[in-house]
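[Meeting: bench + compute handoff]

Bench side (C.D.) handed over the final construct sequence. Compute side (W.E.) agreed to return the predicted structure before the next meeting so the bench team could plan truncations. Sequence as handed over:
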Amino acid sequence: MKASNFLQLKIYRRTFFIYLSIVIVFFFFIISNRYKNARLAGQQFFSEHMDRAFSQVENELDGIVNTIDNFLIRLNSSSMLKKDFFYFFGSTPAEYTAARLRSGDMAYESYLGACDNLVADCNYLIRYILYYCEENVMCMEYSQEGYSRCKRIEPEEGEALCRTGYAYTRDIYLDSVYKGKISFVIDVAAPIEKAFCRQGGIAVWMELQGEGKRLGDPLDGDVEFGGITESGRHLGVAALTSGKTGEYFYTVNASENYSYLVVAAGKAEAYMQTQIKELWVLVFGLFLTFLLITMLYIRQFSADGRFLQDILHSVECARNGSFQRIRVGKRSDEYAVIARQLNGLYEYLEALIQQKYELTISQQRTQMQMLSSQLNPHFLYNTLERIRLRALRGQNMELARATANLGLLYRNIVKTEPVITLQKEIDITKQYLDLMCFLYDDQFFYHCDVEEDLLGILTPKIWMQPIMENFFKHNFREDESIKIIVLSGEKCVEGVKLTFFDNMGCIQEGELEYLNGRFTPEEGKKEEGQDGLGLQNVYHRLLLYYGDKVKMTIRNNVPSGVCIEVLLRDCGGI
């Protein structure tokens, strides 16, 4: 039988296809879920990288603004710089130079020199310094190398220059009189490109005062920023978008302090390399595991299919009257159990055919023996009942009650179910104790005090009576003293505690130690009645029913008597 022939059997074909469907669904679920997690991890990594770049730009712009503020504070605190500033403010370069010559201040630090130092301290990111006064607008333009030139411009041209970067503007006063304003136009694009694009592979769209500018890597021209800036302007979250050449992560960062928007895009694969490698390892591992498990299933199903075919063939032969044995070999599964049962059945049927008459006679003999065993108890019951009736006719009520108790006790022992309630077990014990009261007349009394809500607990039949019998067998003394046995039952922290004690004697310490040593699970698992110890037989029966939940101990009941305590832990009938 080929390995794939097991698919011809319905029991295996349906199971195998269900298994295959479940594995495929599970495989794709795991892969899709891990890819989703990998994409989220790459997206988070890209977003954190861009957020750090955005924070770097913000910190750099904050530093430039603080440097400008410190420059203006120094300007107001230095009388020479302030005087030179107002020579320059509202004047042409020629007028400023003439004013310095007239004042004789050429040897001191000039305002223009202080501006050059300011631009250098700001990493040459201040592109323009615009001076607005009532008459005109003076523009100082700085290159990235720090070179400057000064010219007079129109107000409209000054506003256009302010839109090329972030314009930090301060009003100018002289002796509390408004003189105009000064604007420092800071190049925002340079620090953005430096922070966001220094590692390459990043395309950036910068939007400042309604005008956009593209920076960084063009990424094959596949990145479209228009829809991203509109949909994500106020979100500031990363999104995954598919382009012509792959997938891209986007982040949107908007500056509240400097009025610019930065949209950065990067190829997703560059930020998912580690996760993709782990995903491929997972795919290979899952596929290999699936392949190995499938091969094992096919091998097992094929072997089972061949064995099942042997079983079906054997059954077909049996229908035709030929009992052909099934070769089980070393198999130990359920199919092997069925095969062994069939082999046993075949042997039984063959023996049945050969020994039909002998078996019929044996069955009749067994039925006669069972009928005879049923007659013996009835004879005893009838005899005890006749004795009780004769005692009643003789007005011997005590003898009649004792006879009735003996018959009832024997009936309960013989016919009662093996598992009864604690109430029924106590009733049987009381019947035995009533007989002892009859035998010993006024020398013996007993008392039973068991909590009512314990009476429904299930327990094995006839284990209390041997304990009571043990008191009479070992402790009873023929004297005039009053003998008392007490049975009590109560709930405790550990479970249910049943206590049996008398006042009829005591046991030596060495013997107590020996007896308690027999009340252990190891000793209790030995066959009942192995050495004739009645209490061990009681413990053996309780252990069979309750397992390790039962504990039995024996001790002396000070000042006189013996106490036997049975603890049932976690008893379900409570």
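W.E. noted at the follow-up: The chain is about 55% helix and 20% strand. C.D. will use this when planning the next construct.
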